[in-house]
Amino acid sequence: MVDVFSREKRSEVMSRIRGSNTGPERALRSMLHRLGYRFTLHAPNNRRLPGRPDLVLPKLRTVIFVHGCFWHGHEHCPAFRVPKSRTEWWTAKIAGNKKRDTRVEAELRDLGWHVVTIWECALKTRADREWLEKRLPRLLEEETPVLRVADDEVTYRTRK
C-alpha cells in the first residue's frame, strides 16, 4: 500500500511524535502523585540507569516505563497493528524495540531495581485509569507482576 503522505509530509508528521512528557506519562505522574508517591524524572542518577526509565521511585528502588502500544509492539492490543506499507521495516523496527526492552529490563533487575511496565492503553479511558490506580500500590511495593499491566489478567509473584 502506498503512503497517503508525501515523503516530506511523512517526515514532518513523524518528527512531531514525542518521546517524553507524553499524555500517558503525565496521567501516570498525576496518579502517582495523588497516591502519595514521589518520583524523579531527570535526576542526574537517572541518566546512569539503562534504558532511561520514564519514572524513578528511588525510595522504593523502582523504575517505571510507560510503553506506547504501537512503538513497543503490545500484542493483542487494538492500538497495535503493523502498518500496511513497509511492513518488513516496521516489523524489524518493533522487534528491535521489544528486544531492547527485554535487555534493559534484565539489566535493571540485575542492578537490583524493581521494573514496572505500564502500557499506554492502561491509561486511555477513565475506567482504565481507575483500574490501574487500584493496583498501583501492589505493583510498586508488594509484588512483581508476571504479566504486564493492561493484559486481561495480572497475576503476581512475591518480590525477590
What does this 3D model show about the protein?
This protein has 160 residues and is of the alpha+beta class. It has one domain (19-158): VSR Endonuclease (Endonuclease, Chain A). The chain is 39% helix and 13% strand. The chain is built from four helices and five strands. It has helices at residues 7-15, 23-34, 87-110, 126-142, and strands spanning 55-57, 62-67, 114-119, 143-145, 156-158. The strands form two sheets. The chain has a three-stranded mixed sheet, sandwiched between helices. It has a two-stranded antiparallel sheet with strand order 4-5. The protein is globular. The termini are far apart. The model is unreliable at 152-160 (pLDDT under 50).
Provide tags for this entry:
single chain, 160 residues, alpha+beta, Endonuclease, Chain A, three-stranded mixed β-sheet, two-stranded antiparallel ribbon, 4 helices, 39% helix, 13% strand, globular, disordered C terminus
Largest sheet: number of strands, sense, barrel closure: 3 strands, mixed
Q: What is the CATH architecture assignment?
A: 3-Layer(aba) Sandwich
Helix segment tally? 4
The shape is globular
Q: Indicate the proportion of strand residues.
A: 5-15%
Order of helices and strands: HHEEHEHEE
The CATH homologous superfamily is named VSR Endonuclease
Mean residue pLDDT: 82
Indicate the CATH class. Answer: Alpha Beta
Q: How far from one another are the termini?
A: 48 Å
Unreliable parts: 152-160
Task: Give the beta-strand count.
Answer: 5
As a percent range, the share of helical residues equals 25-40%
What's the structural domain tally? 1
Query: At the third CATH level, what is the topology name?
Result: Endonuclease, Chain A
Class by SSE composition: alpha+beta
User: What strand order characterises the main sheet?
Assistant: 1-2-3
Supply Rg.
17 Å
